[in-house]
Amino acid sequence: MRIGELAERTGVSTRTLRYYESRGLLESRRAVNGYRVYGDGELRLVQQIRALQDFGFELEETRPFVDCLRAGHPAGDSCPDSLDVYRGKLAEIDALMDRLRAVRMRVEAELVRAESRRQGASVPRCELEGRT
Amino acid sequence: MRIGELAERTGVSTRTLRYYESRGLLESRRAVNGYRVYGDGELRLVQQIRALQDFGFELEETRPFVDCLRAGHPAGDSCPDSLDVYRGKLAEIDALMDRLRAVRMRVEAELVRAESRRQGASVPRCELEGRT
DNA sequence: CTAGACCTTGACGCCGACGTCAAGGCAACA
DNA sequence: TGTTGCCTTGACGTCGGCGTCAAGGTCTAG
């Protein structure tokens, strides 16, 4: 199939596919006229990339999965490097959620404080130091 | 005080202060030689901006707080517009955390699945469809 | 008088993941 | 044969929040 069909079947733009190729994530054979030609392997490869991107993975983080698939493994996460990326992402998510929880608490405390100042008379003297 | 002192006292670069000014967040009087001159009002203003940025607010989101302070209110969050930004940020954080939780679960499920495939023999037939 | 520290504006660079446009080649159909 | 639709490469634009450099003006201490 050519680039237009691959784009349509994967839901990405042709520009995106060329971009993946420029990053070394996607390879293409060429027809005699210079057109890119793809097979089903590339289709699955792009689907793998998109699935990970939907999870918030950066393109570079999908590379081990891509390499794994291209090495002939049945799934992109059949290789140790891919699993390391999974683990790193879990740690990253945990750190981000911790930070978000902390920020959320402080913002909410500020909101409550400011609201009470507008309605009620004086600011309550108690400290709003909640712990998760 | 001049820009270098304000930068040092707020912990930001002079470039950053000039950038704030270009965005209309910061104003400056000028000395006869053209140098920017700031007072304590601007100091508090920059501190307000940085405090919000540390919470992950974009510069544009700090504008209501800045306007509020410049209007003479005692705090940046003494005005309704600022409280709206607080509320919007809380909603944004909640949505992001919901999304992160979902992604986290799916990534962890993939990890467990892939790990068990590598160690144990066959993939368990059960579906890992956890609900929050 | 000069070195050095401070200040000015202007402009380009960076990151990530592409969007969009330009200028042209190739293929198929009326 | 001409039009339409696909394809090619190349290059600039986008967004946010600045970093960094260039080329110059200003002020102060020695």
UniProtKB/TrEMBL annotation, chains A, B:
GO terms, molecular function: DNA binding; DNA-binding transcription factor activity
Please give the superkingdom of this protein's source. Bacteria
Query: What range does the record give for the signal peptide?
Result: none
What protein name does the entry list?
A: DNA-binding transcriptional MerR regulator
Q: Which Pfam families match?
A: MerR_1 (PF13411)
Residue stretches in coiled coil: 90-117
- What sequence ranges are listed for the domain HTH merR-type? 1-68
Instruction: Name the Gene3D superfamilies on file.
Output: 1.10.1660.10
Keywords, sorted A to Z: Coiled coil, DNA-binding, Transcription, Transcription regulation
Instruction: Show the SUPFAM superfamilies listed in the entry.
Output: Putative DNA-binding domain
